[in-house]
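Feature request disguised as a bug report, sorry. It would help if multi-protein outputs had a clear separator. Right now it looks like this:
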Amino acid sequence: MALTLLRGMRTPISFRSSTGLFFTVLRPRLARFTTRAESAQATEAKAAAKSIQLATKEASEQKLQGFEAIIGIETHVQLSTVTKAFCSCPYNYGSQPNSTICPTCMGHPGTLPVLNEKVVECAVKLGLALNCEISMTSKFDRKQYFYPDLPKGYQISQFDIPIAKKGYVDLDLPVEFGGGHRKFGITRVHMEEDAGKLLHSESGSYSQVDLNRAGVPLLEIVSEPDMRTGIEAAEYGAELQRIVRYLGVSNGNMQEGSLRCDVNVSVRPVGQSEFGTKVEIKNMNSFSEINRAIDYEISRQILLHKEGQADQIVQETRLWDESSQKTFTMRKKEGLADYRYFPEPDLPEVVLTTDYIDEISKSMPELPEAKRRRYENMGLSMQDVLFLANDDNVAHFFDSTLEHGADAKLACNWIMGDIAAYLKNEKLSIDETKLTPLELSELIASIKNGIISGKIGKEILVELISKGGTVKGVIEEKDLVQV
């Protein structure tokens, strides 16, 4: 089951370790990938004399300098389906290497893909959630490129006819970042399969290939270049995470690779209509890293413009290094012609009906934007609204508490205050505690009616969260009625 690689570049072998079977690619000295430290040193040598801190500070004042940033994001969402996109293999994060693979997802000759219907359902759900036009007929295409963790030598994706296009997403920026409402365009949403995973050795002499992830279904969301700051881009990514979690199509965990954002950044003088040369940034594992990576890249490009070296900004893929807080060159960026797209001959067109789309539309939950507007109409502050709507479990708990007669503001204060502090300390989610919405509403009513004081209410809350029970029972058991 070894991979076939270009002769003279890499030699594949396979071996077993305590964690499972790996396919390993040996790297001759002249063909080794440049290590992170070496690459960072080589690409940033000319800028070493400049103060990165100063450049970052300048980036925050880019409009005053006469420059503006143009930012677009490509987001890959790994779907929570039982099986892969085109075969019956399961995928479980953390499984032993190469333990959930078959000839189809390994790209063996003679195998044929069969489309997982659930992937189409998830794609339509997300397209509707992002206010897109759903394509009644779409098709799959082959995207050709070579990489050791891509066993077929091509990726099944969608090119000219994606399943959804021309949408938008609405979001509210956090109050601490100035607040305000933003609307960002969505160019397209398309279905595709994931590649495997390469684990590079510390020495850089070989890489281990795990194909468990090969063939896992993805939805790629391509935004319009509507963002101008790192904060906007990070909040856009966070909103997509909220949406896929609300829909239940993905867990959206960035640390597991279930949601991955590749950011395209360019700068141009204010007033110029043409875009500058865009640079793609990868390897960001949190939304705060997205913010910092964009800020650094904006400052780097502005610095080159100011020094008359704008020609050194080339279309390339750069990696974000969290330890040095810098981006560095990974590879030159391919163009569409390099991928040699052509229609996938082994898969038929995806044809949808109006009844199918209507049925999915009726099953859609209340989405984050609608929930925020509903909470805002209750008279809650924007800070309250953003906190409650950020997590679907928290929002459901809050709504259930109101259904039992609790005051909206009081319920919000308890959830954002003592309950949130307890969850943070214990590293729990609200649905993992023993507190119920009914008992929180009873606790609020007991304080409001003067049966107990607010201080005693805090003691009872801890008891209810950790051990369960009822407010009335705890009051009677510990004789907590105030005189």
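(second protein starts here, but nothing in the output says so)
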Amino acid sequence: MPDHDSHDTYDRLIALLDTARVGYRLIDHEPEGGTEAVCALRGHPASEAAKCIVLRVKVDRRTTRHVLAVVPGDRRVDLDAVRELFAARYVGFSDAETAERLARSVPGTVLPFAFDPGLELVADPDVVTRSQLYFNAARLDRSLVISGEDYARLAEPRVERIASPA
């Protein structure tokens, strides 16, 4: 994916936050996309991070949906819970090319926002209740922190229990 697309996604995020007059803080750090490593660089527990994963959901033989699952950084996506949520036959991780196209960013920088209409956003309740929610801001070298409440208001995710212990 060309680098300019990630910058476009970053610019769109900042414009959204500024337009909504949401309080946020940017954190510059060494380039890192792994949850544990970037949490250490930012100086917070992994439970305060938003782990964002693009899933492929096969509802039936003809219908495939794509879901952006957002869970706390110290947890994993419960694929069975997502499968039940969508009454699907199969749920798995999306291929990298599709994930990058829909998320409009590279792995490790996926935002907890769905800017593509082909991507359905589902967040675990433990994400939206965080007083501080950290995530890479469509860049490996910059992160953002906002309140879970502001995140939920702006991103408007479907809030469902989709996380399980790591």
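Even a blank line would do. Unrelated, but nice: Residues 28 and 65 are 34 Å apart (CA to CA).
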